[in-house]
Amino acid sequence: MKSFAVGVDLGGTNLRVAAYSHGSEFLETIQLPTRRESGREAILIELCGAIERLLARYSGQFQLEGVGIATPGPMELPEGRLLILPNLPDWNNFQLKNELEARLGTPILVENDANVAALAECKYGQGREYGVESLCMLTLGTGVGSGIILQGRVWHGMNGMAGEAGHIVVYPGGAQCGCGSLGCLEQYASATAVVRMAHERARQGDAPGITHLALKKPKFSSHDLFLLAKAGDVQALEVFAAVGRALGVSLASLVNTLNLELYVVGGGLASAWELFEPEMMNHLRQCSSIFRITDPDLGDGQRMAAAKTFIAPAKLGSDAGLLGACLLPFTVSVSSSLQAQNIA
Ligand SMILES: [Zn+2]
Protein backbone atom coordinates (compact mmCIF):
# COMPACT_ATOMS: atom_id res chain seq x y z
CA MET A 1 0.00 0.00 0.00
CA LYS A 2 1.34 3.46 -0.88
CA SER A 3 1.87 5.81 2.00
CA PHE A 4 0.62 9.38 2.44
CA ALA A 5 1.24 12.30 4.77
CA VAL A 6 -0.71 15.31 5.89
CA GLY A 7 1.09 18.64 5.94
CA VAL A 8 0.11 21.99 7.44
CA ASP A 9 1.47 25.45 6.64
CA LEU A 10 0.41 27.59 9.59
CA GLY A 11 0.85 31.18 8.47
CA GLY A 12 -0.22 34.46 9.98
CA THR A 13 -2.69 35.01 7.10
CA ASN A 14 -3.64 31.55 5.84
CA LEU A 15 -3.86 28.09 7.28
CA ARG A 16 -3.21 25.50 4.57
CA VAL A 17 -3.57 21.76 5.03
CA ALA A 18 -2.79 19.13 2.39
CA ALA A 19 -2.75 15.38 1.88
CA TYR A 20 0.20 14.19 -0.17
CA SER A 21 1.51 10.92 -1.55
CA HIS A 22 4.92 10.45 -3.21
CA GLY A 23 4.77 10.50 -6.97
CA SER A 24 1.60 12.59 -7.13
CA GLU A 25 0.59 16.19 -6.77
CA PHE A 26 -1.22 17.08 -3.55
CA LEU A 27 -4.12 14.64 -3.19
CA GLU A 28 -6.17 17.47 -1.73
CA THR A 29 -5.59 20.90 -0.19
CA ILE A 30 -7.71 22.88 2.24
CA GLN A 31 -7.12 26.61 2.67
CA LEU A 32 -8.68 28.55 5.51
CA PRO A 33 -8.04 32.10 6.71
CA THR A 34 -6.03 32.14 9.97
CA ARG A 35 -8.64 33.79 12.20
CA ARG A 36 -6.15 35.52 14.49
CA GLU A 37 -8.86 37.68 16.05
CA SER A 38 -10.66 34.53 17.29
CA GLY A 39 -7.61 33.42 19.28
CA ARG A 40 -5.49 30.30 19.48
CA GLU A 41 -8.17 27.83 20.57
CA ALA A 42 -10.43 28.64 17.58
CA ILE A 43 -7.50 28.20 15.17
CA LEU A 44 -6.53 24.89 16.82
CA ILE A 45 -10.08 23.56 16.46
CA GLU A 46 -10.14 24.46 12.74
CA LEU A 47 -6.66 23.06 12.23
CA CYS A 48 -7.45 19.72 13.91
CA GLY A 49 -10.79 19.50 12.04
CA ALA A 50 -9.04 19.90 8.66
CA ILE A 51 -6.33 17.35 9.55
CA GLU A 52 -8.94 14.85 10.75
CA ARG A 53 -10.98 15.26 7.55
CA LEU A 54 -7.96 14.42 5.39
CA LEU A 55 -6.86 11.54 7.65
CA ALA A 56 -10.35 10.03 7.45
CA ARG A 57 -10.59 10.48 3.67
CA TYR A 58 -7.24 8.93 2.69
CA SER A 59 -6.42 6.40 5.44
CA GLY A 60 -8.41 3.68 3.66
CA GLN A 61 -6.46 3.88 0.38
CA PHE A 62 -3.03 4.79 1.78
CA GLN A 63 -0.92 4.03 4.82
CA LEU A 64 -0.31 7.10 7.01
CA GLU A 65 3.36 8.13 7.11
CA GLY A 66 2.72 11.00 9.52
CA VAL A 67 1.64 14.60 9.99
CA GLY A 68 4.05 17.52 9.50
CA ILE A 69 3.42 21.12 10.59
CA ALA A 70 5.33 24.17 9.33
CA THR A 71 5.18 27.24 11.55
CA PRO A 72 6.76 30.68 11.28
CA GLY A 73 9.45 31.63 13.78
CA PRO A 74 11.96 29.59 15.74
CA MET A 75 11.02 26.65 17.93
CA GLU A 76 12.66 24.43 20.47
CA LEU A 77 13.06 20.77 19.56
CA PRO A 78 12.48 17.96 20.35
CA GLU A 79 9.58 19.35 22.42
CA GLY A 80 8.19 21.35 19.47
CA ARG A 81 7.68 24.39 21.67
CA LEU A 82 7.09 27.54 19.65
CA LEU A 83 9.19 30.49 20.75
CA ILE A 84 8.16 33.85 19.28
CA LEU A 85 5.62 34.01 16.45
CA PRO A 86 5.50 37.65 15.32
CA ASN A 87 2.09 37.33 13.61
CA LEU A 88 0.51 35.02 16.19
CA PRO A 89 1.53 36.50 19.56
CA ASP A 90 -0.78 34.32 21.71
CA TRP A 91 1.12 31.25 20.40
CA ASN A 92 4.44 32.32 21.99
CA ASN A 93 5.92 29.46 24.08
CA PHE A 94 3.04 27.16 23.09
CA GLN A 95 3.78 23.40 23.09
CA LEU A 96 2.26 22.84 19.66
CA LYS A 97 3.54 19.30 19.13
CA ASN A 98 2.29 17.95 22.48
CA GLU A 99 -1.04 19.71 22.14
CA LEU A 100 -1.76 18.37 18.64
CA GLU A 101 -0.60 14.86 19.54
CA ALA A 102 -3.00 14.88 22.52
CA ARG A 103 -5.90 16.12 20.40
CA LEU A 104 -5.29 13.95 17.31
CA GLY A 105 -3.81 10.81 18.91
CA THR A 106 -1.08 10.57 16.26
CA PRO A 107 2.63 11.57 16.24
CA ILE A 108 3.24 15.09 14.90
CA LEU A 109 6.43 16.58 13.45
CA VAL A 110 6.80 20.35 13.75
CA GLU A 111 9.32 22.40 11.86
CA ASN A 112 10.17 25.99 11.06
CA ASP A 113 8.64 27.06 7.71
CA ALA A 114 11.98 28.14 6.21
CA ASN A 115 13.42 24.69 7.02
CA VAL A 116 10.57 22.85 5.29
CA ALA A 117 10.74 25.20 2.27
CA ALA A 118 14.44 24.28 2.00
CA LEU A 119 13.53 20.58 2.29
CA ALA A 120 10.98 20.88 -0.55
CA GLU A 121 13.44 22.88 -2.69
CA CYS A 122 16.07 20.20 -2.11
CA LYS A 123 13.78 17.29 -3.02
CA TYR A 124 11.72 18.81 -5.85
CA GLY A 125 13.24 22.19 -6.79
CA GLN A 126 16.82 23.23 -7.49
CA GLY A 127 18.19 20.31 -5.42
CA ARG A 128 16.74 17.89 -7.96
CA GLU A 129 17.79 20.15 -10.86
CA TYR A 130 21.43 20.15 -9.68
CA GLY A 131 21.33 16.52 -8.52
CA VAL A 132 22.34 17.31 -4.91
CA GLU A 133 20.99 16.16 -1.54
CA SER A 134 22.39 19.05 0.51
CA LEU A 135 21.75 22.77 0.22
CA CYS A 136 21.27 25.97 2.17
CA MET A 137 18.30 28.17 1.31
CA LEU A 138 17.59 31.78 2.22
CA THR A 139 13.90 32.80 2.09
CA LEU A 140 13.40 36.53 1.56
CA GLY A 141 9.92 37.41 2.80
CA THR A 142 8.64 39.73 5.53
CA GLY A 143 11.80 38.60 7.32
CA VAL A 144 14.69 36.42 6.13
CA GLY A 145 14.38 32.75 6.96
CA SER A 146 16.83 30.02 6.15
CA GLY A 147 17.20 26.29 6.24
CA ILE A 148 20.08 23.86 5.91
CA ILE A 149 19.47 20.44 4.36
CA LEU A 150 22.23 17.87 4.79
CA GLN A 151 21.93 14.56 2.95
CA GLY A 152 18.21 15.06 2.44
CA ARG A 153 17.39 15.96 6.03
CA VAL A 154 16.86 19.19 7.94
CA TRP A 155 19.89 20.15 10.03
CA HIS A 156 18.47 21.18 13.42
CA GLY A 157 21.56 21.78 15.48
CA MET A 158 21.42 21.14 19.23
CA ASN A 159 17.79 22.14 19.88
CA GLY A 160 16.22 23.19 16.61
CA MET A 161 17.80 26.60 16.21
CA ALA A 162 20.28 25.91 13.41
CA GLY A 163 19.91 27.73 10.12
CA GLU A 164 19.00 31.19 11.42
CA ALA A 165 21.12 32.82 8.73
CA GLY A 166 18.70 35.76 8.54
CA HIS A 167 20.43 36.96 11.70
CA ILE A 168 24.00 36.87 10.40
CA VAL A 169 25.25 40.37 11.20
CA VAL A 170 26.26 42.13 8.00
CA TYR A 171 26.64 45.66 9.43
CA PRO A 172 27.75 45.70 13.11
CA GLY A 173 25.90 48.52 14.87
CA GLY A 174 23.42 48.73 11.96
CA ALA A 175 19.62 48.69 11.89
CA GLN A 176 17.81 47.30 14.95
CA CYS A 177 16.53 43.77 14.30
CA GLY A 178 13.49 42.11 15.89
CA CYS A 179 15.85 39.45 17.32
CA GLY A 180 17.51 42.08 19.54
CA SER A 181 20.76 42.39 17.57
CA LEU A 182 21.86 45.21 15.29
CA GLY A 183 22.64 44.99 11.57
CA CYS A 184 21.25 41.49 10.77
CA LEU A 185 20.83 40.33 7.15
CA GLU A 186 17.05 40.45 7.71
CA GLN A 187 17.31 44.24 8.08
CA TYR A 188 18.83 44.58 4.58
CA ALA A 189 17.37 41.75 2.48
CA SER A 190 13.70 41.30 3.46
CA ALA A 191 10.64 42.90 1.85
CA THR A 192 10.25 44.98 5.03
CA ALA A 193 13.88 46.11 4.79
CA VAL A 194 13.51 47.16 1.16
CA VAL A 195 10.62 49.48 2.06
CA ARG A 196 12.54 50.89 5.07
CA MET A 197 15.70 51.49 3.02
CA ALA A 198 13.66 53.20 0.29
CA HIS A 199 12.08 55.58 2.85
CA GLU A 200 15.55 56.27 4.29
CA ARG A 201 16.90 56.97 0.80
CA ALA A 202 14.00 59.38 0.10
CA ARG A 203 14.68 61.22 3.38
CA GLN A 204 18.28 61.83 2.28
CA GLY A 205 16.87 63.83 -0.65
CA ASP A 206 17.66 63.65 -4.36
CA ALA A 207 15.47 60.56 -4.87
CA PRO A 208 12.58 62.00 -6.92
CA GLY A 209 11.15 58.64 -8.03
CA ILE A 210 10.89 57.18 -4.52
CA THR A 211 9.64 60.51 -3.09
CA HIS A 212 6.90 60.59 -5.74
CA LEU A 213 5.95 56.95 -5.02
CA ALA A 214 5.75 57.66 -1.25
CA LEU A 215 3.50 60.68 -1.84
CA LYS A 216 1.22 58.77 -4.20
CA LYS A 217 1.15 55.63 -2.03
CA PRO A 218 2.47 56.22 1.52
CA LYS A 219 2.30 52.47 2.36
CA PHE A 220 4.08 51.30 -0.79
CA SER A 221 5.34 47.72 -0.91
CA SER A 222 8.64 46.14 -1.94
CA HIS A 223 6.87 45.16 -5.18
CA ASP A 224 6.04 48.82 -5.90
CA LEU A 225 9.73 49.65 -5.45
CA PHE A 226 10.65 46.68 -7.67
CA LEU A 227 8.46 48.12 -10.47
CA LEU A 228 10.06 51.55 -10.01
CA ALA A 229 13.55 50.01 -10.21
CA LYS A 230 12.59 47.93 -13.27
CA ALA A 231 11.55 51.19 -14.95
CA GLY A 232 15.13 52.40 -14.45
CA ASP A 233 14.84 54.61 -11.35
CA VAL A 234 18.44 54.96 -10.15
CA GLN A 235 17.72 55.32 -6.42
CA ALA A 236 15.31 52.36 -6.42
CA LEU A 237 18.00 50.31 -8.17
CA GLU A 238 20.46 51.38 -5.41
CA VAL A 239 18.13 49.86 -2.79
CA PHE A 240 18.19 46.50 -4.58
CA ALA A 241 21.97 46.76 -4.93
CA ALA A 242 22.08 47.13 -1.12
CA VAL A 243 20.02 43.92 -0.86
CA GLY A 244 22.61 42.24 -3.10
CA ARG A 245 25.55 43.44 -0.99
CA ALA A 246 23.99 42.10 2.23
CA LEU A 247 23.16 38.78 0.57
CA GLY A 248 26.64 38.45 -0.94
CA VAL A 249 28.37 39.04 2.39
CA SER A 250 26.06 36.55 4.14
CA LEU A 251 26.40 33.92 1.43
CA ALA A 252 30.19 34.28 1.70
CA SER A 253 29.98 33.36 5.41
CA LEU A 254 27.72 30.42 4.60
CA VAL A 255 29.93 29.19 1.74
CA ASN A 256 33.05 29.50 3.92
CA THR A 257 31.37 27.63 6.78
CA LEU A 258 29.33 24.95 5.03
CA ASN A 259 31.17 24.26 1.74
CA LEU A 260 27.99 22.93 0.11
CA GLU A 261 27.41 22.63 -3.63
CA LEU A 262 24.21 24.67 -3.72
CA TYR A 263 22.75 27.81 -2.08
CA VAL A 264 19.22 28.83 -3.08
CA VAL A 265 17.53 32.20 -2.65
CA GLY A 266 13.72 32.06 -2.49
CA GLY A 267 10.73 33.91 -1.05
CA GLY A 268 8.71 36.76 -2.56
CA LEU A 269 11.61 39.21 -2.81
CA ALA A 270 13.65 36.66 -4.80
CA SER A 271 11.52 37.67 -7.82
CA ALA A 272 13.79 40.76 -7.88
CA TRP A 273 16.74 38.37 -8.53
CA GLU A 274 17.89 40.18 -11.68
CA LEU A 275 18.15 43.46 -9.70
CA PHE A 276 20.22 42.20 -6.75
CA GLU A 277 22.13 39.31 -8.35
CA PRO A 278 25.07 41.34 -9.80
CA GLU A 279 26.00 42.98 -6.46
CA MET A 280 25.33 39.72 -4.59
CA MET A 281 27.79 37.83 -6.79
CA ASN A 282 30.38 40.67 -6.66
CA HIS A 283 30.35 40.63 -2.86
CA LEU A 284 30.30 36.85 -2.66
CA ARG A 285 33.42 36.73 -4.85
CA GLN A 286 35.10 39.48 -2.79
CA CYS A 287 34.36 37.90 0.58
CA SER A 288 34.73 34.14 0.05
CA SER A 289 37.98 32.52 -1.00
CA ILE A 290 36.14 29.18 -1.07
CA PHE A 291 33.73 30.60 -3.63
CA ARG A 292 36.52 32.12 -5.69
CA ILE A 293 38.18 28.72 -6.22
CA THR A 294 34.88 26.88 -6.80
CA ASP A 295 33.19 29.58 -8.92
CA PRO A 296 31.30 27.85 -11.79
CA ASP A 297 32.13 30.85 -14.03
CA LEU A 298 35.88 30.18 -13.78
CA GLY A 299 37.58 28.26 -16.53
CA ASP A 300 38.49 24.66 -15.66
CA GLY A 301 42.18 25.59 -15.62
CA GLN A 302 41.68 28.04 -12.74
CA ARG A 303 39.11 26.09 -10.73
CA MET A 304 39.85 23.55 -8.04
CA ALA A 305 39.27 20.08 -9.62
CA ALA A 306 35.60 19.66 -10.55
CA ALA A 307 34.20 21.29 -7.41
CA LYS A 308 31.65 24.04 -8.06
CA THR A 309 29.55 26.19 -5.74
CA PHE A 310 26.21 27.13 -7.30
CA ILE A 311 23.96 30.04 -6.26
CA ALA A 312 20.46 29.84 -7.75
CA PRO A 313 16.98 31.34 -7.39
CA ALA A 314 14.40 28.94 -5.90
CA LYS A 315 12.28 26.95 -8.36
CA LEU A 316 9.30 26.25 -6.12
CA GLY A 317 6.91 29.10 -5.37
CA SER A 318 4.52 29.69 -2.50
CA ASP A 319 3.67 25.95 -2.21
CA ALA A 320 7.19 25.14 -0.96
CA GLY A 321 6.22 25.41 2.72
CA LEU A 322 3.15 23.21 2.37
CA LEU A 323 4.99 20.63 0.27
CA GLY A 324 7.89 20.61 2.75
CA ALA A 325 5.49 20.03 5.65
CA CYS A 326 4.11 17.01 3.76
CA LEU A 327 7.63 15.70 3.07
CA LEU A 328 8.69 15.97 6.75
CA PRO A 329 7.20 12.63 7.84
CA PHE A 330 9.06 10.89 4.98
CA THR A 331 12.41 12.06 6.36
CA VAL A 332 14.08 11.72 9.73
CA SER A 333 16.17 14.69 10.83
CA VAL A 334 19.94 14.28 11.00
CA SER A 335 19.97 15.48 14.62
CA SER A 336 17.20 13.10 15.72
CA SER A 337 18.97 10.20 14.11
CA LEU A 338 22.19 11.26 15.84
CA GLN A 339 20.31 11.47 19.15
CA ALA A 340 18.83 8.02 18.51
CA GLN A 341 22.33 6.68 17.82
CA ASN A 342 23.64 8.26 21.03
CA ILE A 343 20.81 6.70 23.02
CA ALA A 344 21.46 3.31 21.37
ZN1 LIG B 1 18.30 39.63 13.81
How do the helices and strands line up, and which of them pair or pack?
Layout (H helix, E strand, L loop, with lengths): L2 E8 L3 E8 L4 E8 L6 H19 L4 E9 L3 E2 L4 E2 L13 H9 L3 E5 H12 L1 H5 L4 E6 L3 E7 L2 E2 L31 H4 L1 H13 L4 H9 L5 H9 L3 H25 L3 E5 L6 H15 L1 H6 L15 E4 L6 H8 L6 H10 L1
Question: Describe it for me?
Answer:
- Helix 3 (113-124) packs across helix 12 (320-327) and helix 6 (191-203) packs across helix 9 (234-258).
- By secondary structure, the chain is an alpha/beta fold.
- The two termini are 30 Å apart.
- The strands form three sheets. It has a five-stranded mixed β-sheet with strand order 3-2-1-4-7, with helices on both faces. A five-stranded mixed β-sheet has the order 10-9-8-11-12, sandwiched between helices. Strands 5-6 form a two-stranded antiparallel sheet.
- The model is unreliable at 333-344 (pLDDT under 50).
- A hairpin with a 4-residue loop joins strand 5 and strand 6 (81-82).
- It has helices at residues 40-58, 96-104, 113-124, 126-130, 186-189, 191-203, 208-216, 222-230, 234-258, 273-287, 289-294, 320-327, 334-343; strands at 3-10, 14-21, 26-33, 63-71, 75-76, 81-82, 108-112, 135-140, 144-150, 153-154, 262-266, 310-313.
- It contains 13 helices and twelve strands.
- The structure holds zinc ion.
- The site of zinc ion (ZN) has 6 residues, from loops.
